[in-house]
Amino acid sequence: MKTLLIGEYREGKLLESTYELLGFASQLGGETAMFLVGNSAELPACSCKLYLADVVASGEYNPDLHKQLILQAIAEEKPDYIVLNHSSYGWDLAPRLAAQLKASQISEIIAIVDGGFETGCLNAKMRRTVSPKTARAVLTIQAGAFPVLQPGGTPQVVQLVATAAGSMEFVGYEPAEAKDVDLAKAEIIVTAGRGVGKKDNVAVIQALAKALGGELGASRPVVDAGWVEHSHQVGTTGQTVSPKLYIACGVSGAIQHLAGMKKSDFIVAINKDKDAPIGEIADVLVVADVMQFVPALTAKLAK
Amino acid sequence: MKILVCIKQVPDLESRFKANKAGNWFDETDLAFRMNEYDEYAVEQGVRVREQFGESCELTVLSIGPDRVGEAIKKALAMGCDNAVHIKDSAAADKDPWQIASIIAAHAKNTNYDLIFTGMQSQDRGSAQVGVLLAELLGFSCVTTIIGFDYKDDIITVKRELEGGIKGVVKLKTPALVTCQLGLNTPRYPTLPNIMKAKKKEILSIPAEELLSEEALTATASFHPPAKKGGGIVLEGETGDLVEKVIALLKEKTAVLR
Ligand SMILES: Cc1cc2nc3c(=O)[nH]c(=O)nc-3n(C[C@H](O)[C@H](O)[C@H](O)COP(=O)(O)OP(=O)(O)OC[C@H]3O[C@@H](n4cnc5c(N)ncnc54)[C@H](O)[C@@H]3O)c2cc1C
Ligand SMILES: Nc1ncnc2c1ncn2[C@@H]1O[C@H](COP(=O)(O)O)[C@@H](O)[C@H]1O
Questions:
Q1: HSE on the CB side for A47, CA within 13 Å?
Q2: Cβ atoms < 10 Å from Cβ of B76
Q3: Which chain A residue lies closest to B220 (C-alpha atoms)?
Q4: What's the pTM value of the predicted model, to 2 decimals?
Q5: So what's the pLDDT on residue B230?
Q6: Which residues of A228-240 are buried (b: 16+ CB within 10 A; e: fewer)?
Q7: Which ligand is nearest to the CA of B60?
Q8: Which of A78, A258, B7, B29 is 20 to 30 Å from B205 at the Cα level?
């Protein structure tokens, strides 16, 4: 069995997540090669074969061109599996490859199991076991689901040359919004999720944060709705935090939120849904209405 | 200009799910359905472009699914889509993303859309595939996960959202497909007059069999809850008791409460 891993490179750097692909590949077994649009001065620490295209000529975001380059590598390597991270780079590119190869694609794999690959569904409440029906398949793996594996060594480079241009123009990056709170330093974070119901209720969550001497956190919909500023957002597209105590109020526990807070020392979740996926990582799940429980807790702490 | 928005109807995620008889997806009994959240942003963006270009523009909403998806279609019409295509398929849930994209492509090939909006992913299946597959099948330019959209002088400028909140700015031309991320805009609520108006809008109904010529590329062997990791304490009961218990636990297990 042969696997081709699609590494990631952004803003002039090889991304750490590339080594999660190697972690996945070692669980899968067989022979591993890698593809990267990157820089020969910064190669992944691995002694595998590396199909390398130069980032200056190919661009960091030029999916039409990257697709063509990967198809070249596939034609040479003839892999059974093509594996990408389920990231803004990977989920953008994977279906383009799958369509061109007419191959099965399985998205956001969390484990390799008997009979196929395990994936989450219904906002992580349930799981599916899925398998490809085609001889060749495109896979994306969930961030953090597989161990980082850095085998060391120097890859044997096969240089690929970009020929076609792309149909789109990548203008550049815009930085994330400036942070006025550094949640990463907070020892206690109390987070408002959509379950708080409305903007006015955020004050209740804020009051608990204050009573505990902590900071206010927020899930993404709460930020998107303008209830709380983006600088408070926890998760993949917000901040990553690991406080001593994290209290999640009305947060369902989507993977993109968990990715930002699951390393917290102690997690308390307040949710009216006993099956909410936040319960999977919470040390304590309080099954209650946020607007009843939180003010009562704050009042008791104030005494 | 012709614009298409693809929407999926998904179950309310606060429901309890159990497996269907085949054991490969959920049992629909007693579940409430609504429009996929990501697709609401897609509809809203479509309506905004329609407003920008006025009568020279036609905005169609499309959904594949059983009769119940008619509700989601009506909502999109009430938000401002001009007309709808309902591709009737009582077995849509058994189809993989490749088949769903192929069905939409078979319809779109004859219609010459200039611009297509889809959600970044469906909340139930979450494959994040259908939009991009469709773009590939039609040969459209495609950008995923957009949180900003602007269309001026024949050039579309989008912002893609990347990890950590960084954005990538991309320019592209029609024909194009973009997949919409949470927070792209604030979807409007349909007003009563618009709900009434929507009742008169045309809904073209096409049986899926007429458009489907592809086999599934992926098989689902099982549908099940996650294995409980255990360890976590679940507290239920009267508020006063819950507060006492939580405070006791915080004192015992953390150093943050004195
Ligand atoms: C690429 C990408 C990046 C993302 N990045 C992030 C990110 O950085 N951060 C982030 O948070 N999300 C992110 N998301 C969104 C994520 O997928 C979820 O949509 C989001 O985390 C859900 O937020 P929530 O839990 O507040 O809302 P919901 O999922 O709507 O959950 C609300 C919860 O509140 C409970 N509830 C409702 N009413 C009450 C009540 N009265 N009392 C108690 N409980 C109640 C419900 O049972 C439910 O569990 C991202 C998504 C994508 C696709
Ligand atoms: N049954 C369907 N009918 C219409 N559009 C769909 C359907 N399924 C998926 N889509 C579209 O494709 C997007 C991505 O879905 P998915 O690949 O399932 O994550 C959704 O947000 C919708 O815009």
A1: 3
A2: 28
A3: A130
A4: 0.95
A5: 64
A6: bebbbbbbbbbbe
A7: 2
A8: B29
